[in-house]
Amino acid sequence: MVHGRNRERAEKVAREIGAVGVALGSLSTDEGAASVHEQAVAALGGPIEILVNNAGGSETDSTTRPPLDISIEEWLGNYNGNTLSSVRMVLHAVPAMVEAKWGRVIQISSAVALQPNNLGSDYSGAKAALNNFTVSLAGSLHASGVTINTVTPGVIMMDSLLDWGRSQYGNPDMTVEEVTNRMAADKIFDLPPAGRLGSPDDIAVVVATLASPRSGFVTGSNYRVDGGQVRAVL
């Protein structure tokens, strides 16, 4: 089951992964989240068993500005879009998981939640709040059969970033490696110890593992899929 706000994109993903359908709506409101949940349950023919909260991102350019240049409205918008969107879906889906004594919730966070930079503190703060909520939720569901975990990506080479790089450097035929190396040379980002940027497949492998029946003894954990970007011993 694929959720999205754009039918064409959501249906394309659904076809690619063999999903049973799509649920359209915004998770930024209580009503929108309720509608998405209802659509998902109807398409699945029963309760949601595995919930991957991947909605988020910043809808303004606040990620390029220091804290003193970010408005309260932008703070609230990022908190709503990156924290409360996941909270809403958890409130709808997890009670049925608890009743069934089985379920998986996987929250997609960001490396800046653990290692914030000097820009975009509203976004990194919202993702940090999501991490906190996830740990609290996992601890509260003692012996329920429901696991709650976080996956923390570093910089991922999405199609949108690749397209931006090709446009920025005036060459529509640049490879992923060429775009990555130019961006690193221009200090748009630092390459992590892995020597490359991540791909969606890198994230998918970890998410699929956490969603499987074999992950029943893993909960309240945060898996960094960042090529070594975040330097920490925890």
UniProtKB/TrEMBL annotation:
One BP annotation, GO: monocarboxylic acid metabolic process
InterPro entries according to UniProt: NAD(P)-bd_dom_sf, Sc_DH/Rdtase_CS, SDR, SDR_fam
Name the UniProt record assigns to this protein: 3-oxoacyl-ACP reductase
Family statement drawn from the similarity comment of this UniProt entry: Belongs to the short-chain dehydrogenases/reductases (SDR) family.
